[in-house]
Every structure is written in structure tokens, then in C-alpha cells.
Amino acid sequence: MAAADDSYRAEVDRAHRRLVSTRGGVAAFLDAHRGFHLTILSRCSNSHLLRLCTQLHDHTQRYQVSGAGPLRRGDPAGEHLALRDAVVDGDARAATTVLTAHLKATLAAVRAVAESHE
Q: What is the pTM of this model?
């Protein structure tokens, strides 16, 4: 978020609005969801880290499609809103806290699916 400016904040806000207004099924939602998270990371200057985050996000979405979605605890929509707010406000500490909790909840659901297939 160190490279955040008005343009970046507007991009994050647009990506969030697209996410919450997406209709048309799972594929459209997953595309908007990916877009939101990758927009937040879009100003990352470390190309290796950005590529790793993109790969991890894509792998996680595969698990969500294969059954992790219903197992996910928490309020993903509320978490996305809180993340958008923190990023738009330039509050890196809050964004980190929200994103960490968001990812932990997703990871728990992915683990539950993986363990059920063992």
C-alpha cells in the first residue's frame, strides 16, 4: 500500500463494487473475486511475490469450487468490505488484520475439504 494513490484507491473501490454486484453464476463471481484480490496486490513491486500470491489464489479458488465454499466460516462479504475500506483509507495495519483473518478462514475451509478427501 506504500504505492497507493487516488487512482489505486479508485481501482480497489471499482473492483469491490464489481464483486458485490456480480450476477451470473459461479464463474462470474470467481472472476470478480479474483479481480478484487489481485487489484489490491496490483501495486506490489515484487513480481515474484505477486506471482506466488496469484498462484495461491487460483489454487484456493479450485478448492472453493470443489466444496470449500459452504464450509467457510465468517462473513466473506463483510470481510471484503472491511478490506476495501482499510485499503481505500490507507490503513495498512487494518488491511493486514482483515486480510489475515480472511485468509485464515478460507484456509480452514480448504483444509477441511482436503482432509475429507484423504
A: 0.87
pLDDT score of 24 more than 70: yes
Phi, psi of 102 (to 5 degrees): -60, -45
Q: Choose among 69, 68, 70, 33: nearest CA to 54.
A: 33
Q: What is the pLDDT at residue 67?
A: 67
CA dist 71 and 26 (Å) reads: 16
- The amino acid that residue 106 corresponds to is T
- Give dist(CA 62, CA 65) in Å, integer: 5
pLDDT tens readout for residues 80-95: 999 999 999 999 999 9
Give the whole-angstrom CA distance, residue 69 versus residue 111: 12
Residue 52 CA to residue 25 CA, distance in Å, equals 27
* CA count, 13 A, side-chain hemisphere, 29: 11
